[in-house]
Amino acid sequence: MSRPRLNQGLVQVYTGNGKGKTTASLGLALRAIGHGYKVFMLQFMKGSKDYGEIQAAEKYLPNLIIVQSGLETFVSRDNPSRTDIELAIQGLNTARKVISEGHYDLVILDEINTALDFNLIEPGDVLEIIKSKPCHVELVLTGRYAPKEITEAADLVSEVTLVKHPYYQGVTAREGIEY
Ligand code: ATP
Ligand code: MG
User: Fold this and answer.
1) Which residue among 12, 13, 14, 22 is best mutated to probe the pocket of ligand 1, counting the most ligand atoms within 8 A of its Cβ?
2) What is the pLDDT of residues 147-175, one digit of tens each?
3) Diameter of the chain by CA atoms?
4) How confident is the model at residue 2 (pLDDT cuts 50, 70, 90)?
5) Concatenated DSSP letters for 44-80?
6) Could you tell me where the beta strands, DSSP code E, fall in 80-174?
7) Which SUPFAM superfamilies does the UniProt entry name for this protein (predicted)?
């Protein structure tokens, strides 16, 4: 039996300085998988396997593939390492290939906006991927500080605004909630 494909795949951006961008994209992934779609998430600037979504995908969600292209350590905005840049470029090459092949219905490029803001990759390269993506592929770009070129090229842009975050009350990252 053939599986469903989207008639019209669009480009979505989740940006802003509040919490909820990566988790919004994972919510979309869950919804898509429920309808029989296949999801590929590429996480830029992340290298730790200690994320609940990675463990959940491996154990329970064969239709959700998560690949990371970053180091475990934080990237310095002013002075990224050569490896940070190389991994971001490699991530973009993987994304380009996965999107053009069209096997995955929903492709999430997690933290790609941050990678652009940190100048690890070029907006022109991302715009090229957006322009040439197959019609049926839904593309989601997450991360703070989405550049204007990218939000202009997108069909849907949601900005998550920081109103309150427990971090500022001294609550550090919690397993199962922040990672
Ligand atoms: P989440 O992964 O929880 O959906 P996010 O993708 O919106 O968050 P990022 O900008 O990617 O947020 O932030 C990375 C980490 O910092 C995540 O663990 C996130 O939960 C946490 N975080 C998000 N917003 C804030 C904030 N305003 N202050 C402190 N920590 C935050
Ligand atoms: Mg995030």
Assistant:
1) 22
2) 999 999 999 999 999 999 999 999 999 99
3) 53
4) confident
5) ET---S--HHHHHHHHH-TTEEEEEES-SSPPPSSS-
6) 106-110, 138-142, 156-159
7) P-loop containing nucleoside triphosphate hydrolases
| CA neighbours closer than 13 Å in the CB half-sphere of residue 166 | 6
Give domain 11-169's CATH number out of 2.60.120.480, 3.40.50.300, 2.40.160.60, 3.40.710.10: 3.40.50.300
Q: Among residues of the chain, what percentage have pLDDT more than 90?
A: 99
Ligand 1 pocket, residue 20 CB under 6 Å: yes
- CA–centroid distance, residue 19 to ligand 1 (Å): 4
What is the layout of strands, in order, in the sheet containing 64-69? 64-69, 39-44, 106-110, 138-142, 11-15, 156-159
Residue 1 has pLDDT above 70, yes or no: no
- Tens of pLDDT, residue by residue over 91-120, are 999 999 999 999 999 999 999 999 999 999
- pTM, rounded to two decimals: 0.96
Q: Which atom of ligand 1 is nearest to 21's Cα?
A: 7
Tell me if 160 sits within 8 A of 113, measured CB to CB.
no
Query: What are the structural domain ranges in the chain?
Result: 11-169
